[in-house]
Design a protein that fits this description.
Elements: H1 2-14, E1 20-21, E2 24-25, E3 43-48, E4 53-57, E5 59-60, E6 63-64, H2 67-75, E7 81-86, E8 91-93, H3 97-106, E9 119-121, H4 128-139, E10 142-146, E11 149-153
Parallel strand pairs: 8-9
Antiparallel strand pairs: 1-2, 3-4, 3-7, 4-11, 5-6, 10-11
Helix pairs in contact: 3-4
């Protein structure tokens, strides 16, 4: 009996190692659904009815998810979804990117900005409202993370937009 139990336990322990995303075993990543850098999927900004925004990549297990569906899930416990904004690719242009990414990581998101996009670029243009939102995120926002999505509270989301890179 002990030999069969050991064999079954060993088989079950090894079997999940075959699953991978971008060539990395699911047990090697903080987020087992995370995609590798350069995946090309947009970043979604989910504006929830409680006034917060949830930022997340749409890439999951090597495929791009629909932003609307992703945001409905992310805002479900936050009084529902108000609207969705998405970047054009996985390279996102943001003012004060280094500070924003440092704050994301310091506030408990294990993957930092890697959970949101592949690369942050300096913006070539940005609306005043979008710049105001991202400046608030860089200095005043309250962050929380769940399933490696970043919830942003305390900033006016009415002008939230991604900048051009």
């Amino acid at each position: 009996m002990n030999q069969r139990w050991f064999a079954l336990t060993a088989l079950l322990a090894i079997a999940p190692l075959a699953e991978s995303c971008g060539g990395t075993s699911v047990f090697d990543a903080v987020d087992p659904k995370a995609c590798g850098s350069g995946h090309g999927c947009p970043t979604a900004a989910c504006l929830c009815n409680d006034g917060s925004a949830v930022l997340d990549t749409t890439c999951e297990l090597g495929s791009c998810r629909d932003s609307q569906t992703l945001c409905e899930e992310r805002c479900d416990s936050l009084q529902g979804l108000a609207s969705v904004i998405e970047s054009s690719t996985d390279e996102v242009a943001l003012p004060q990117c280094e500070q924003i990414c440092a704050r994301v990581e310091i506030n408990g998101c294990e993957l930092g900005c890697d959970t949101l996009f592949s690369e942050c670029l300096p913006p070539t243009s940005c609306s005043d409202g979008a710049k105001s939102f991202w400046d608030c995120v860089a200095s005043d926002a309250v962050f929380s993370c769940r399933d490696n999505a970043v919830r942003v509270e305390g900033c006016d989301t009415s002008q939230l937009a991604f900048c051009d890179g």
